[in-house]
Amino acid sequence: MANLKAIRKRISSVKSTQKITRAMKMVTGARLARAQQRILALRPYAVKTGEMLREVTVALAESGSNESEHPLLARRPEKRALLLVVTSDRGLCGAFNANILRATERLMREKEAGGIDVSLAIIGRKGREYFQRRSAPIHHAFTGVWEKLDLEQARNVARVVARPFLAGEVDAIYLVYNEFKSAMSQRVIAEPLFPLSPPEPEGASEAVQDEQKPQFLFEPDKRRLLERLVPLYLEVTIARALLESLASQLGAQMTAMDSATKNASEMISKLTLVYNRARQAAITTELMEIIGGAEALRE
Description:
Blueprint: H1 2-63, E1 80-86, H2 96-113, E2 117-123, H3 125-133, E3 138-142, H4 151-166, E4 172-182, E5 185-194, H5 206-212, H6 222-298
Parallel strand pairs: 1-2, 1-4, 2-3
Antiparallel strand pairs: 4-5
Helix pairs in contact: 1-6, 4-6
């Protein structure tokens, strides 16, 4: 009977865990719907802002205008790089953080193999603790970003990561985050933030591209335009990465809780079967003892 009691206790424990995972799945699903709306609204704006800045910088380069170039647009030989890594504060979200950490380590090895010194700016407790245990060179660790995620948070992050680039302490900034595809699918992105990558060609011939190139008229002037456009690009790109990561984290967490709930159901079924078999065996043993005792009395 002690064995039956242990099985009943385990079934009760698994049922309690299943209630928690089911509730977490429902809460995460509601939060995911809001996060998905936010990223779908911001993503086209962020993409277009980056495309516009790249086209403007190309136009400035072709016109030979360098006097109005923004300090963040400076191009230097890459000897030192800063990686802005976006992780979560909490776990229970599957391979969300593990994928980011592996991609970051792979990028670090590639840069260090090329003789480039790498430092890290980390968002999220999971990434901070992971790299602190490995004594990685951490330039800055952000705290409290996920508690109130808005444009002001992105602006604070942008100021911190831009400072070493402006001071010449680093020559390139890379952004590593999870891009949201669906609740079950996220894609790790590791892209340069500064210096800007050139605009991607659309596959047309050079002559056609030259005819279709936009002609820019700068009003009021190039310097003031870049002073507004470059910080806007930096803030919006970081805001997009944060919202993408939040939606990806919630999607991964909802998927993990759904899997945990299903696994709990399967475990409860197996334990119930084991319990019924053990109970049946115990009843059979008792009946055999009763029958054996009755036959002994007859004799």
